[in-house]
Amino acid sequence: MRLLVIGGSDAGISAGLRARELDPTADVTLLVADRYPNFSICGIPYHVSGDVPDWHHLAHRSAADLDAAGLQLRLEHRAIAVDSDAHTVTATAPAGRSTVIGYDRLIIGTGAVPAVPAIGGLDRLGPADGVHVLHTMDDAFAILRTIAERRVVRVVIVGAGYIGLEMAEALTTRGLTVTLLEQLDQVMPTIDPELAAPLAAHLRDRGVDVGTGVKVHTVGHAATGRLAVGTDDGDHVADLVLVVTGVRPDTDLAASAGAALGVRGAIVVDRGMRTNLPDVYAAGDCVHTYHRLLEQHVYLPLRSTAHKQGRVAGANALGGTATFAGSLGTQAVKVFDRVVATTGLRDTAARAAGFNPATVEITADDHKAYFPGATPIRIRVTGDRTTGQLLGAQLFGHRGAEIANASTPSPPPSATGPPSPTSSTST
Amino acid sequence: MRLLVIGGSDAGISAGLRARELDPTADVTLLVADRYPNFSICGIPYHVSGDVPDWHHLAHRSAADLDAAGLQLRLEHRAIAVDSDAHTVTATAPAGRSTVIGYDRLIIGTGAVPAVPAIGGLDRLGPADGVHVLHTMDDAFAILRTIAERRVVRVVIVGAGYIGLEMAEALTTRGLTVTLLEQLDQVMPTIDPELAAPLAAHLRDRGVDVGTGVKVHTVGHAATGRLAVGTDDGDHVADLVLVVTGVRPDTDLAASAGAALGVRGAIVVDRGMRTNLPDVYAAGDCVHTYHRLLEQHVYLPLRSTAHKQGRVAGANALGGTATFAGSLGTQAVKVFDRVVATTGLRDTAARAAGFNPATVEITADDHKAYFPGATPIRIRVTGDRTTGQLLGAQLFGHRGAEIANASTPSPPPSATGPPSPTSSTST
Question: Per the CB < 8 Å rule, is A427 touching B304?
Fold first, then answer.
């Protein structure tokens, strides 16, 4: 059995590892476009901040670990064509060579690429000008190079999703002056404004200039040799501009090979991670993801999801019958000394999906208040009024909040929905 | 509506508060046997340790809070008889007076009392001799008095359940020399031995002399004026002996009134917390508790359960239709710098209940290992092989483990059951 995997990030690596777990004799080859297999994209902000001084530590596993697990890695091999009839993949190798590799089963884990918004100037400017995206280790190195070489003082970050938030922290921690601009009315648009507001306040407390409801329309060179970021709210001068407004699935290769694309252009797979092409599976940020509560596929690029999908693809490529159980979109983000966590559907998403939601908020201490060091956690829980089904939860609290001691919330929770007539709760 | 509540701990207080939430005109009176309404019994070890220097802070709510919520507290009123036909309760008041109080609905929340084991000498010795139990604030004060007055150096704790563990930490923190003796083969008998072993090791690291599989048969005066604890493994000398071998429901009052008793002698209630007596409800450590997975009533005295049952009783006493959803026995215990948490059924309990369980163990970091300060969490998960149902989980980790960042476990988990053929997992 020759299993070929395109991609060396979470989906590809976990697919390969799962295949080798199930069949230690399987011939598993991974084509890795860069030199950084199994690196934590999510960890990049902590290298930029200096929390993780050595970038090698961002690798979940070393090359030696992967080798010991029996994965054959071909670094700097970029797949450029899949022939699913012939069961071959063509890849460019270092020094421009091209190679054709045969397979019995193929797993596509090409991931995502930054979704660059329609902002004037971004088509002409790049890292050499101090204008950056952030999705790969090379992107991280380019940012660090700009910081070093351009003597960066001021940074404008466009987009206050979780990478924007983490990079606002990272660059502030490095001593830079950071302006964080978000087109929507709040930071972290995946949580309720009630929790986004204290998160923005915490960013401001730590010196980040946060602008929400601000549309960036141009980025260009300023007369001073610096960069100018034009918004409908005035101009900002910057030495480095970081555009982190989300990602889109990287599907050029799969689409060229005839793979069907669906929501947001992601590769269509069934819950066994099978594409419409014979013997071709796909997993991770390049595919759509089954949502457990919505009971349909959505585009939901998350590392933990990629990992799970990769394992399903790896098992099934070897003839297994694994099923991806689905995602709830669970996410946790640390921003300075606060953490936001969210799972499932919040009110707006639930209503859009046809539920009849109610959301209540309580504030509970992470441990009993009498014990020193208790910190409050704001918890918003969303349920369906009609069926009583739990739909989702969002938490906002301190980074040091304790994991273990469940605390009884104080008596009457404030509620955005009506109080429930009965209140039997489960552990 | 005159609602009378017997008991001022978690069940009684939450019943009263819930009643007042639903009907701010309800006449809610609580008979509190001591002078410490709504105190955290669970917090006592942290006062003994010195972590909570002022014992007043162990109150979840002050007398003023409870007054503001509309609860009429009668402190030092001990109920001695219930006449459910006449709808009256007789209580002794301070200075030996006796009083009869009428009610429309009654909630019994008398809680539990220490279960003193069959150890020779315990029937004759008490706090004046340095032999203690620990279940009330008065018990705590008595222990502190003994420590101060008897110049305590050595302590023997009999019983390594969670109170024994917490008190071992508390008394060690005070500088005393502690021996912790447990009749069963492990500390914290509610968790698997695989996690109890590192917990015992941590206790020993911190200087606690831990003896498991040790049966204590006598406690008596030693010739030196100290105490002698005789075991089948030799004798221990102590200045203070603390017997914490569990609790039994406090049901003398309810039984005398004709309340039916069930498992382990606990008051029988339905899931609306109704007893067999007209207009009489009961909640908390004095009643049996519906277990969600076992789908039957068991004796499971826990603060969080008492709180929830109290709210159900409070709602239903006012004519509501609340149902106690059931408990999973969720518990978390801090011992020095480690925390153990458990929920649901572990392997042995599941097998005894007729399930076909498998338990697997993984070790995951609390956050990604590349970020400074990651600590491992050992996680044991139990499921049913036949149905795939999740039955329970146990965790062992560091106290400072972070709450928010779910980390991907390293590839092949060690398993006490066979590896699962498919591995689709949910968030």
Answer: yes
Q: Which residue of A has its CA nearest to B340?
A: A404
One-letter identity of residue A210: V
Q: Say what the ipTM of the complex is.
A: 0.73
Q: Are B161 and B189 in contact (CB under 8 A)?
A: yes
A51: exposed, middle or buried (C-beta count within 10 Å: 0-12, 13-18, 19+)? middle
**pLDDT tens for each residue of chain B, 427 residues long:** 999 999 999 999 999 999 999 999 999 999 999 999 999 888 999 999 999 999 999 999 998 999 999 999 999 999 999 999 999 999 999 888 999 999 999 999 999 999 999 999 999 999 999 999 999 999 999 999 999 999 999 999 999 999 999 999 999 999 999 999 999 999 999 999 999 999 999 999 999 999 999 999 999 999 888 999 999 989 999 999 999 999 999 999 999 999 999 999 999 999 999 999 999 999 999 999 999 999 999 999 999 999 999 999 999 999 999 999 999 999 999 999 999 999 999 999 999 999 999 999 999 988 888 888 889 999 999 999 999 999 999 999 998 887 654 433 333 333 333 333 333 322 2
Instruction: Count Cβ atoms below 10 Å from residue A9 Cβ, excluding itself.
Output: 28
Determine the Cα–Cα distance for residues B395 and B373; give it in Å rounded to an integer: 19
Shortest distance between the Cα of B261 and any Cα of chain A, in A, equals 23
Alpha-carbon distance B42 to B52, whole Å?
A: 12
- Note whether B219 and B238 are within 8 A (CB): no
Q: Nearest residue of B to residue A422 by CA position?
A: B322
* Phi and psi at residue B153, to the nearest 5°: -115, -45
Residue B290 is encoded by which pair of tokens? 């519906």
Q: Is the pTM of this model over 0.95?
A: no
Å from B167 to nearest chain A CA? Answer: 15
